[in-house]
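Tutorial, part two.
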Amino acid sequence: MTTTSTSSPPVPAAITPPRGRRPKRLGEKLGPYAYIAPFFIMFGIFGLFPLVFTGWVSLHDWQPLATEQTFIGLENYRVMLEDPRFWKAIGNTFSIFLMSTIPGLVLSLIIASVLNNRSLRVKTFWRMALLLPNITPLVTTTIVFGAVFARDYGPLAWVLDLLGLPAIAWDSHPFTTQLVISLMVIWRWTGFNALIFLAAMQAVPASLYESAEIDGADRWQTFVHVTLPSIRPTILFSVVTSTVGGMQIFTEALLFTDPMGGNNGQGLTMTLLVYGQAFNSFHFGYASAIAIALLLIVLVIAGINFLLARLVRSA
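Running the prediction step on this input gives:
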């Protein structure tokens, strides 16, 4: 007797239809926006609103005690362009910026390269010491520098007298005044930038240094051809932040000279001019026009830095 097996074809498993997405509730939709809302609210209150209000004030003959303000359009900007103090403040600001930013960044690179040396001992101490100028109150720094560069007393006057050189009135000549202010800026920010460069240097792969060592490169060639190209984005970041900070030099110039920037305005910066017009002369509309001009200058410089960064990155 023969038996025939009748095997039924396999039945495909039932395909379950994909479950539809559960509609999100209103709380789930608004949740991510609620997390980031505090930043935008604070930025709107303390960043965007003062900026827009400053632009509005710059179009008025704004008197702080008056109940009604007179709208004068672009008159404050016309007066600003014809004011020699405005152009002197721009020149002084750029002069101090160039005298402080370029040497400061170069010095920061050198210090970071030294701290990146593997044979250096007590590295933590040196890294902490770099932050000392940055955490020192700026008023204290300015007073100390004012004592060091005093005309008739202080260590520098003593050295000049010991060498038989005449005393120098550092706060009277444009170059010496801006030099001292630049030294204060360098003293404050060099260590901070050095730590940023040091962090970038320590992120460079060790294989690159080993390859350079195998190829016979010395320390200078390794620094130029390996380290600098590897930390290029960090250098550009420091250049941008230093540029923005260099356009806002205020306390150093105010305390080393006076609210007018000295007898001949040799230390007058743009922020000092804004302060003097607003809180000494009570020309709030004119001061607001200068502040808007400073904003435009910073935006132009930031745009130039951005274009240079793209060119360097593409190269």
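DSSP finds 14 helices and two strands in the chain. In part three we will examine how such features are distributed along the chain.
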